[in-house]
């Protein structure tokens, strides 16, 4: 396993801590599950709204 140093807002960390306490898990394991379960969003082939960095938005192709 590789350590990722990610930055999140205090509110997000508090929500993760609540879930971790409720499910008797660590914040790291809850975050890992959230990332893994959230990847289905990208696998479904989506286009993000235009961001300041990207002129035309970002599209992720559908994987088959």
Walk me through what this model shows.
The chain has 64 residues and is mainly α. It contains 2 helices and no strands. The chain has helices spanning 10-23, 27-43. It is globular. The protein starts with 9 loop residues before the first helix and ends in a 21-residue tail after the last helix.
Give a quick summary of the entry.
The protein has 64 residues and is mainly α. It is built from two helices and no strands.
> How much helix is in the residues?
40-55%
* Pattern of helices and strands: HH
Structure classification: mainly alpha
Task: Report the β-strand fraction as a percent range.
Answer: under 5%
Low-pLDDT residue spans: none
User: What's the shape?
Assistant: globular
Taking all residues together, what is the mean pLDDT? 76
Largest sheet: none
């Amino acid at each position: 396993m590789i350590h990722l140093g990610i930055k999140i807002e205090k509110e997000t960390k508090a929500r993760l801590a609540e879930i971790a306490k409720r499910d008797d898990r660590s914040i790291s394991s809850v975050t890992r599950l959230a990332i893994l379960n959230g990847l289905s969003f990208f696998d479904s082939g989506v286009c993000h709204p235009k961001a300041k960095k990207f002129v035309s938005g970002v599209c992720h192709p559908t994987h088959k």
